[in-house]
Each structure stands twice: as structure tokens, then as C-alpha cells.
Amino acid sequence: LSTRSLPRRSSDLSKNGSLEVLLITSRDTGRWIVPKGWPSKGLKDHKMAAREAEEEAGVVGEITPDPAGTFVYLKRLTAESIEVEVTLFVLRVRREMDRWREKTARTRRWFTLKEAARRVQEPELQAYIRNAKKLFAALPSTAATKRDQASTSRR
After folding, report:
1. Is 53 in contact with 21 (CB distance < 8 Å)?
2. What is the DSSP string of 78-118?
3. Of the N and C termini of the chain, which has fewer Cβ atoms inside 10 Å?
4. Is-contact 19 133, C-beta < 8 A?
5. What is the pTM of this model?
6. Residues 21-47: what's their mean pLDDT?
């Protein structure tokens, strides 16, 4: 099981006014991917996905606590490939750091949805990116989710 974030920025932050997602290169093959991590004891999956986005891509923001979806992909190992189940969370990027842990090991770049879908290799991730406008619109904002949780806990 792997957790991944799909970093996005609102149209007012992009250069051309369109919705964009952030991709990074993998360290081993250089292919375009979204930041990912592996479950960690004591850390919720969405928090792990946010932490990995900060370490791998140098971005911080608000992450949805509920998954946007799941998919399976084949992870290439030296002699074989294994199936890995991925839980995908949406990260609304608020800040890009100038320095971050894996800056020298990866390239990060913002892409339009159409271009990002062409760049990633996993077919199911391509589908999530192609349908991202609907996906993002259907997800509650993290601020709204936190308000709802706080008002529920006070009852």
C-alpha cells in the first residue's frame, strides 16, 4: 500500500489561469509521477501523503483527509514488477519552498491537466488527472472539513 498526493494549485496561482497539477520525476527512472510515500505507524495516510509532498516536491498546503480514490500500478524492481495499491489524496498547494529535502534528486514542474495526464505512465492515475476538475469540485475543502469535525465534536 502506498499513499500519494495530487498537488494542485488554483487558477489564480497558475501563470495562464488554468487548473494545474504538480508532477515530480522519480529518482530511479526519471519518469513523471506524483509525490508518494509508504504507510507509517502512528501517522494517518493523508498526513503521510502531505509529508511526502513536502519532502519530495517542496510544497505545503491543505490535504483532504478523505481519499480522492485508489488505483493499482506495477512497481518496477530490478528483476521483477509488483502490484502496489495506491491511495490518492488531493493537496491544495499554498506554498512552494525554495529548498527541500529531495530538491537535488528530483525535478518538479506544474502541468495543465491535459499535459500531466500525458506525462504520467499509470493509466488509472492518467484518468484521475483527466477528470481532476470534477474530482476537485466534488471534494470538500480541508477548511470546511475541519469546521464540520469541530462542530460535530462540540455536540
Report:
1. no
2. SS-EEEEEEEEEEEEEEEE-SS-TTTTT--EEEEEHHHHHH
3. C
4. yes
5. 0.82
6. 92
